Amino acid sequence: MSGIYRDIAPLRGGGVAARVPITVIEPEGHARGAIVVLHESREFAEALLELMRSLSIEGWIVVAPNLFHRNGSTDAVFGDELFADFDACYDWLIGRGVFGDCIGVLGFDSAGTAACLVATNRPIGAAVSVAAPGIITPLDDRADALVTAAPRLQAPWLGLYGTDDPATPADQLETLREAAARAAVATLLVSYPGLHHRPDHPGFDPADADDADVLLDAQSRIFDWFDSHLR
């Protein structure tokens, strides 16, 4: 069915209660593939929903799992729990006729870090991380630092960053760019001046043409990356 709705995705090897709540937006007509959207909040900001709707309009099934479904957890999800939740979404999509190499993953902030780690461990089609921290120092004892993980990427990876983000200093971005370049797949790290590269919560000044241009470029790169690699 087209439109937005909620469903559940069973965890592999789990019982009746082992299910991941998911929010789904389906396109009109035939889907060309799917994108799993990881996000670090229980709620969807309107800007994030609008981005998800835009991806759906382009023909993608968009699936966003609730990463905090385990006993009311509010901690970032990494390690086995992250991969289990992603696998549940992956299996749900495969069950709807989506080919594995036409499934991508998109994440923001710590969930952007998670998206990159998924792309080092799962045979997906493409990955995009926005403002993903944990570049030099791991965010969690279940997560590798991105400079360690990036050379192991198995799927084409795009990283979008703001040069003025204190969580991702410019010198660390250059180190990550070099690490990602050692991967056996296509990688691209783009850094923007300021912090207005976030299509999930833009908040830019409409009177500032530079802010609007950065946001448009960042969103276009996300769409183009999936267009190019999910085939």
From TrEMBL:
Signal peptide: none annotated. GO terms for molecular function: hydrolase activity. It comes from Nocardia wallacei. Residues 24-229 form the Dienelactone hydrolase domain. This is Carboxymethylenebutenolidase.
